[in-house]
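Hey all, sorry for the wall of text incoming. These are the two entities for the joint prediction.
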Amino acid sequence: MKCQEILERLSEYLDGELDPKLCQDLERHMEDCHPCLLFVDSLKKTIPLYKYASCEPMPKEVHLRLHDYLKKECQGC
Amino acid sequence: MLDLSDQTLVEKVKKGDYQAFEGLVNRYEGKVYRLAMRMLRNQEDAEDALQESFLQVYRGLKSFEGRSTFSTWLFRLATNVCLMKIRHRGAEPAKLLPLEDYLPQHEDGAHPQMQEWPERPEEVLLNKESREKMLEALEELPAEYRAVFILRDVEGLSNTEAGETLGISVAAVKSRLHRARLTLRGMLSGYFGKRDN
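and here's what came out:
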């Protein structure tokens, strides 16, 4: 497997959707290819980072305005 | 209302029980708000999208047949409301660069220099400035790619659910997700690189 092929299949690999044979080839390739190993590692770390960067919880006043708005708008539905 | 299933609440709403509708709103408002904030990155727009989404839910519930789960249907509505808002802004970012631009370049068979990321990058990104950088990177993705990434990797929907939500095939979900991840990785790599230099 060449580096380029590895990189094209990485999401499938990380999501556990890659064919087992290709998975083995990929892991064998990474044993000898440090740049690919680092690339996989950084891609793997990218995904959960966005869960940590979650935005602030919904402000209480947004909740109150939503319920007021819906009560008013839904009356005519 | 707290212990009733979505399906039971939906049936009650169809029979005119407004409290049941409020139960559904209470259950999902936080998730829809977070989705809208990530998609739109603006509190006012996110609040508008939140209100519009739930109003559409209320109006559409009578014809909701339950072919998908209530939550998938709700996410589909909310995502489409956000996508419409982005289109109306008229300032959609440029299309994604070719995939090769986010992959390491190999010249004459030589391996490129790769930056090793910190063991726990989330610790680096816990401060507000770093979080902003990440959300800016997310905003630079075309909206359709951003939506796939948020639904799949942030909200944890399956490929099938994300496809149903966006009205695209599973193959399209996978392809967009891969492009989005590579793009975000590339942008964050630049950030980690700058921090180390």
